[in-house]
């Protein structure tokens, strides 16, 4: 070998489904033709071919360590929704650097002396709708904040009966979090400001 190339980060890999017919064999058999139809006739008869004897296809799963995710996610295979200039610049950065966008919270947090937001961001609404397509949890939170504009997280969980992980992704659509002051640690409905409401006593 006259030339060796080394890379500081992995940009791509391929894991082929291979197996040995016998443990003593020195060569491997490629399972791709048996896992994926290679032409139209075989694709049309795929479910009717026998799966016995030599025709039986071994079960194949890639090694667990090849997966970065240990929980299912609906967004892994979703089409790209973020076309912001910042993300497109990162994508065009080339190899040798991390192209993964940092995770950012879409919920809004404010201090008691700051301006309270009037409405959620479009990104927060889109993300909440994508994560929960069932309309019932959305209706429960909508009615809850119409009944009363401010709630603690525990009270919301108790009243709605929603799972904590689901509530985490939906609250960003209906309320913002107050960090300190008389209403600290409360979730407040967008568009509501207790500081100017004459009915509120501190």
UniProtKB/TrEMBL annotation:
<dbReference type="InterPro" id="IPR019136">
    <property type="entry name" value="TF_IIIC_su-5_HTH"/>
</dbReference>
<dbReference type="InterPro" id="IPR040454">
    <property type="entry name" value="TF_IIIC_Tfc1/Sfc1"/>
</dbReference>
<dbReference type="GO" id="GO:0000127">
    <property type="term" value="C:transcription factor TFIIIC complex"/>
</dbReference>
<dbReference type="GO" id="GO:0001002">
    <property type="term" value="F:RNA polymerase III type 1 promoter sequence-specific DNA binding"/>
</dbReference>
<dbReference type="GO" id="GO:0006384">
    <property type="term" value="P:transcription initiation at RNA polymerase III promoter"/>
</dbReference>
<feature type="domain" description="Transcription factor IIIC subunit 5 HTH">
    <location>
        <begin position="60"/>
        <end position="200"/>
    </location>
</feature>
<protein>
    <submittedName>
        <fullName>Transcription factor IIIC subunit 5 HTH domain-containing protein</fullName>
    </submittedName>
</protein>
<dbReference type="GO" id="GO:0001003">
    <property type="term" value="F:RNA polymerase III type 2 promoter sequence-specific DNA binding"/>
</dbReference>
<dbReference type="Pfam" id="PF09734">
    <property type="entry name" value="Tau95"/>
</dbReference>
């Amino acid at each position: 070998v006259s030339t060796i190339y080394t890379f500081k980060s992995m940009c791509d890999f391929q894991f082929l489904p291979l197996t040995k017919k016998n443990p003593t064999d020195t060569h491997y058999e490629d399972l791709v033709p048996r896992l994926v139809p290679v032409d139209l006739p075989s694709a049309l008869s795929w479910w009717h071919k026998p799966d016995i004897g030599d025709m039986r296809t071994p079960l194949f799963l890639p090694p667990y360590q090849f997966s970065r995710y240990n929980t299912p996610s609906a967004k892994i295979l979703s089409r790209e929704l973020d076309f912001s200039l910042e993300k497109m610049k990162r994508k065009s950065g080339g190899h040798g650097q991390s192209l993964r966008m940092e995770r950012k919270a879409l919920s809004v947090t404010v201090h008691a002396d700051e301006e309270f937001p009037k409405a959620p961001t479009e990104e927060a609404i889109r993300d909440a709708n994508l994560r929960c397509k069932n309309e019932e949890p959305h209706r429960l939170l909508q009615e809850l904040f119409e009944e009363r504009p401010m709630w603690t997280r525990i009270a919301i969980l108790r009243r709605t009966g929603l799972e904590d992980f689901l509530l985490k992704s939906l609250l960003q659509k209906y309320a913002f979090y107050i960090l300190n002051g008389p209403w600290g640690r409360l979730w407040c409905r967008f568009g509501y400001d207790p500081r100017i409401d004459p009915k509120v006593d501190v």
